[in-house]
Design goal:
- With 225 residues, the protein is α+β, with helices and mostly antiparallel strands.
- The chain has two domains: 89 residues, Crispr-associated protein, domain 1 (Alpha-Beta Plaits, 2-Layer Sandwich), CATH 3.30.70; 125 residues, 2-Layer Sandwich (Alpha-Beta Plaits).
- Strands 7, 10, 11, 12 and 13 form a five-stranded antiparallel sheet that branches. It has a four-stranded antiparallel sheet with strand order 4-5-1-6.
- A hairpin with a 2-residue loop joins strand 4 and strand 5.
């Protein structure tokens, strides 16, 4: 597996176009691989996340079983005069270093949903959690099964913040179907409980809407970036 970081030049028209919808970014990410449909196996899949930390700062992260070639993104939406324009590093060293009991800072953008009915007689379907409490509970209910727990913070509650609660809306080009996704970013501290389960979460993602920028969990040393 590899982890790639690409910074957008948000002053460019091409960047603004790609950042206008997750469907456009999804297509741009897949174009970085000759055969993206082949990269969805047991060893991992293509995952991506857009971190927009400020109005003019947008960074794309991609986890993938093969190294991507993002020349098209550099030419359209990056900084062509600055070397390759992206940074790709092997993920294996980090994955191999994980151990039970370790604590890491984490970031995850996910699509917190539940399978329920809108009326007593109606069919069940996937519905978004809409309040911060519901969205936090969604993560807390699932994290142990994904290989980690969230320890208590200084206030005694779970050491995680819920922010960037965004509605993503776009129209699929194939069938003109309107798609609405609730994307939520979680940042906090996790403690590893099951190393293999966490490794699976890191390379396969968590939750739904993975094609549209949800599911990628990333780790950083506590106190680091």
């Amino acid at each position: 597996m590899y982890l790639t970081r690409f910074r957008f030049n948000t002053a460019r028209r091409g960047a603004r176009g790609l950042l206008s919808g997750p469907n456009r970014l999804h297509a741009a990410v897949l174009h970085g691989f000759p055969e993206p449909e082949r990269l969805q196996g047991d060893g991992g899949r293509i995952l991506w996340r857009l971190d927009a930390t400020a109005r003019h700062d947008a960074v794309l992260y991609i986890a993938s079983p093969e190294e991507p070639d993002l020349t098209h993104l550099v030419e359209q939406a990056g900084w062509p005069a600055r070397g390759t324009g992206w940074d790709t590093r092997p993920y294996g060293k980090l994955l191999a270093s994980l151990d039970t009991g370790q604590r890491w800072a984490f970031r995850l953008t996910a699509n917190p949903v539940h399978f329920a009915r809108t009326t007593p007689e109606g069919p069940k379907r996937w519905l978004p959690h809409v309040t911060p409490d519901q969205q936090l509970e969604w993560l807390l209910d699932r994290c142990a099964g994904r290989g980690f727990t969230i320890p208590a913070g200084a206030d005694g509650g779970p050491n995680v913040a819920v922010h960037d609660r965004t509605w993503l809306r776009f129209t699929k080009s194939q069938d003109r179907r309107e798609v609405t996704i609730r994307a939520v970013t979680y940042e906090g501290v996790l403690e590893i409980g099951d190393v293999e389960a966490l490794r699976h979460s890191l390379v396969h993602g968590i939750g739904k809407a993975k094609a549209y920028g949800c599911g990628l969990l990333t780790l950083a040393p506590l106190g680091g970036r």
